[in-house]
Amino acid sequence: MEEMAGQDIYGRLYDVVQGNMEAAGVKFPYERETFLCEVEAHPQEIDVSRYLELPNPVFMQAVHAAALKRLPEERTVAFWEGRYGEPQKQFQEEVLRSVAGSSVVAINQIRLVHNPYFEQKRGIRYHCMGALYGLTDKAFLRELGKRLPMPLQKLIRKVFI
């Protein structure tokens, strides 16, 4: 009961903000359902069951916003737009697999819970891969490498390049 009251309050807040933005001639970037799915959610845990009843376009937007902490880019939207007509379960599984394989999800250790389609990779290997994603292409690592003795730099180049 208390959760429904909270959702109602956030829904009314969304409606007010959207109304103000429309009056100013600007479109609110989030769909109402996307906004409400994100309310009161843990930043590293996505309860997939909250998203399963959403239509395909809103599902894609909501899952991206929850997992990647931003709305999908235009080219991502264009890619998925061509697949909105797919059966809901197939579409949802493909979107979830795409998001679960993202480096952002691995780096931030985001977990998809109550996912009826597949078990997300977990364990030490997945954790280490996330850490490696976070270390790749960092300016401070390049600067550190430049300060190392030349034989060590050559060895690192042989191993990593």
Spatial sequence of strands, sheet with the most strands: 1-2
Q: Span between N and C termini?
A: 57 Å
Low-confidence stretches: none
> What Rg do the Cα atoms give?
20 Å
Structural class of the helices, strands and pairings?
mainly alpha
Strand content: under 5%
* Number of E strands: 2
**Global shape:** elongated
Task: Sum up the structure in keywords.
two-stranded parallel sheet; mainly alpha; 161 residues
Please explain how this structure is put together.
With 161 residues, this protein is mainly α. It is 62% helix and 4% strand. The longest helix is centred in the first third of the chain and has 22 residues. The chain contains nine helices and two strands; from the N terminus they run ααβααααβααα. The chain has a two-stranded parallel ribbon with strand order 1-2. Helix 2 runs parallel beside helix 3 and helix 3 runs parallel beside helix 5. The protein has a domain of 81 residues.
Ordered list of secondary-structure elements with their pairings:
Layout: H1 2-23, H2 32-38, E1 45-47, H3 56-68, H4 74-81, H5 88-100, H6 103-107, E2 111-113, H7 124-135, H8 139-147, H9 150-160
Parallel strand pairs: 1-2
Helix pairs in contact: 2-3, 3-5
Report a brief summary of the structure:
The chain has 161 residues and is mainly alpha-helical. The protein is 62% helix and 4% strand.
